[in-house]
Amino acid sequence: MAVSGCGGFIVTQNADNPVLPRRNLLRERLAAGEYVVGLTITTENLEAAVLAAKLGFHFLWVEMEHSPVSLQSLRAMVLATAGLETAVLARVPVVALWTAKRVLDQGVRGVIFPFIADEEMARTAAQACRYPPAGLRGSGAGLAASTWFEQGSYYDSSDAHMLTVVVIEEKRALEHVEAIAALPGIDVLFIGTSDLSFSLGLRGRQNEPLLQSAIDTIAAAARRHRKFLGRPAASAEEVLRYRRQGFQFFQSVTELGLMRLGAEQVLGPLGLSKDLSQQGALY
What we know:
283 residues; alpha/beta; TIM Barrel; two-stranded antiparallel ribbon; 12 helices; 38% helix
């Protein structure tokens, strides 16, 4: 067992804990050119999060921008899934060092930053996820270290493995996407297609040449700078179609969306399912 002081906490590595996984399969798949699919978690139900982690999803996208999920619930999800291969990632509500610090110290393996519009915002995201001298992350990681997947120095391992995802979802970002993609420490350029459509004046419509042109611009920057490329995908067909276009990192439906899909399969043949088509997707 390795211990070290950390701002009043004791940082204990998991060298003597055989339950925790020893590999970062999420990063391994991305580096190998394979795709990863994450379920979006929008409620604080721990049973749902643990079941999702056992169903085959590569990661959980814990939604803390658009849902009421708390830090306490995020930590519970990390604890409850610590022995599983599924990684827990969190989307923070704003781009700031302190918002990232709060989720990082719960033990997540990646942070998703919304509305990255320029190089300075992207730099803040990259620096928030790494310790000095590469970044500006604070060292109070006692909880995170206790559930981290790899033994040895948590600080070194976290710097090497933390996944930094920046969401490109507004028109202004298109002018800066080259600089954003060029920054060290940024791993994934994720295209928020719904908000990007709104920002372009398209009111969320997806089958528009203007939106496709913007997507192509972002994708080209990601390829030039060897960043992983991500976007939402609501079905297996969409995952496979976008995969052929070079996308690897997919945000799938929510746990509530899975409930709806299951209800349609069970109740549809009985004529009992409700038409929810007008409600649209949650995210």
